[in-house]
Amino acid sequence: MGTPHARKGNTRQRIQDVALELFAEQGYEKTSLREIAERLDVTKAALYYHFKTKEDIVISLFQDLARPIDELIEWAAAQPRTLETKHEVLRRYSEALRSAEPLFRFMQENQATVRDLSIGETFKQRMLRLTGLLREPEAQLTDQVRCITAIFSMHAGLFAMQNVEGDPEDKRKAVLEVATELITAAQPPGLG
Prior knowledge:
Order of helices and strands: HHHHHHHHH
Number of domains: 2
Strand content: under 5%
Structural class: mainly alpha
CATH class of the largest domain: Mainly Alpha
Number of strands: 0
Helix content: over 70%
Radius of gyration: 18 Å
Oligomer: single chain
């Protein structure tokens, strides 16, 4: 995120961004709606117009993250199960993750909250659908592991690569390359 209010745009997005900043700085439990309103320099009533609770803010963030993933799953389900399609799924997923990095950090640091809000379960269901579009059910176990690992390497890349020197975009491309290699290695002969 870097700068406050990095996403320009509407108040709803600004509230989400500032809430994520505060959650990262001091933790979800210790952050109040009042503090979010103060950081935004708006009244609590103005904040209430968009979100009644902190939970509403987090759920809205997950819904916003889920939209491009749902669109990707829907698109991929309508495509032939070729290697080219699978490469495109990974490329598009990498793009979707780029804007979701602060939310993934929140999930990592607030796992109990994510579980309590049941958003963790819906996110898990999306990941199962996404990996299901990449792996072949009849494939050898090692190839199924490659496909699942490809997706999770992209998630891990958001965190693990923070401690690796280099340009963030170059690191994202390197993670995508590794995920693509895993999917390519797992593709059964004859499924192009």
